[in-house]
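Why should sequence recovery work at all? Because a backbone constrains its sequence more than one might expect. Tight turns favour small or flexible residues, buried strands favour hydrophobic ones, and helices have their own preferences. The token representation captures these environments compactly. In the example below, the structure is given first.
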């Protein structure tokens, strides 16, 4: 048995873990949601399935759906030219995030173009730049995120300045040792610069370059008809997908999975997906978040009372928020007295 076979565990397979737990077997789960966050389909693959492989299967299977138009929204992991060509097949379009720090000529050209931003929301501004004949590029800017980025950078720079203060007096060996420790911290190492003489300095040029990226992200779109606002808002739908994964993990307890057989693992995932579907339908119907709904309905209790004349079960009196939730969900209000058992004479 070779090393690769030794690391196989059936459907549970070792692969690249998004949680940096490559020591544990895993499975890969995919989910399709509507723009309102309603999950409409889920998939399962072995844990070593690559993103490029699974997105092709998802695209092929979605072709059987009678949808008038499909716009694929993906993050930076799917931005390769091969993936983009595949997503455009069948008159489909895509919106893909680009890596701002990739250093590619297209990204550099997009960021260097001048233009006026257009407000599309309370905390969102967009600007379209033309640098390609086939793709459109939209720069999105979030002022609140820019302020957070600036604050985080100031904290990192202050921490770095404190670490390298008075290091000119250290020996070359000690400075090299400190530089190695800082290199293990990407946030700090980004702003560290070494002079030709080996002295440690804060990289002011890097700080200025990062200031230009505060609160920004770059989108690439193949649809010639979507407005810049629709492109930005379409990409924000990824937040709904991420919220779905968050709820699957934290509220529905998707993991850990204690099953080993493939059919049981798939059944576990399907049950969790159905629970998420019920949560999202409940949220969209009531206009309330699931934690709020659950908190209100958890206050509804059934009490059992026993006395000389008999035993009865009574539900606590419904509050107005509870009545409103049940009415919106078209669920009949429970009877106040559920059962009554007189004492035999």
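From this structural description, the recovered sequence reads:
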């Amino acid at each position: 048995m070779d090393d690769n076979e030794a690391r196989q565990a059936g459907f549970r397979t070792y692969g690249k873990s998004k949680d940096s737990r490559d020591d544990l077997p895993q499975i890969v789960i995919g989910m399709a949601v509507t723009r309102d966050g309603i999950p409409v389909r889920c998939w399962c693959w072995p844990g070593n399935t690559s993103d490029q492989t699974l997105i092709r299967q998802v695209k092929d299977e979605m072709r059987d759906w009678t949808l008038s138009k499909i716009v694929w929204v993906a993050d930076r992991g799917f931005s390769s030219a091969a993936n983009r060509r595949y997503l455009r097949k069948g008159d489909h379009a895509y919106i893909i995030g680009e890596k701002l720090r990739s250093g590619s000529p297209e990204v550099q050209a997009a960021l260097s173009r001048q233009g006026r931003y257009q407000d599309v929301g309370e905390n969102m501004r967009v600007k379209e730049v033309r640098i390609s004949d086939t793709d459109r590029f939209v720069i999105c800017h979030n002022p609140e995120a820019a302020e957070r980025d600036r604050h985080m950078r100031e904290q990192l720079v202050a921490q770095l300045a404190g670490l390298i203060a008075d290091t000119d007096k250290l020996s070359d060996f000690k400075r090299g040792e400190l530089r190695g420790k800082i290199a293990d911290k990407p946030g700090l190492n980004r702003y560290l610069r070494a002079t030709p003489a080996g002295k440690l300095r804060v990289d002011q040029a890097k700080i200025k370059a990062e200031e230009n990226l505060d609160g920004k992200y770059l989108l690439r779109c193949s649809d010639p008809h979507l407005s810049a606002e629709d492109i930005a808002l379409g990409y924000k739908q990824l937040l709904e997908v991420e919220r779905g994964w968050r709820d699957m993990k934290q509220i529905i307890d998707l993991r850990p999975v204690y099953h080993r057989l493939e059919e049981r693992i798939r059944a576990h995932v399907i049950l969790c997906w159905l629970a998420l579907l019920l949560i999202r339908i409940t949220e969209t119907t009531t206009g309330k978040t699931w934690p709020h709904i659950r908190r209100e309905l958890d206050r509804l209790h059934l009490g059992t009372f026993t006395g000389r004349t008999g035993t009865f079960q009574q539900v606590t009196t419904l509050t107005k928020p509870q009545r409103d939730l049940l009415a919106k969900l078209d669920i009949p209000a429970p009877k106040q007295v559920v059962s009554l058992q007189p004492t035999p004479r």
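A few observations help interpret the result. Residues 1-8 have pLDDT under 50 and may be disordered.
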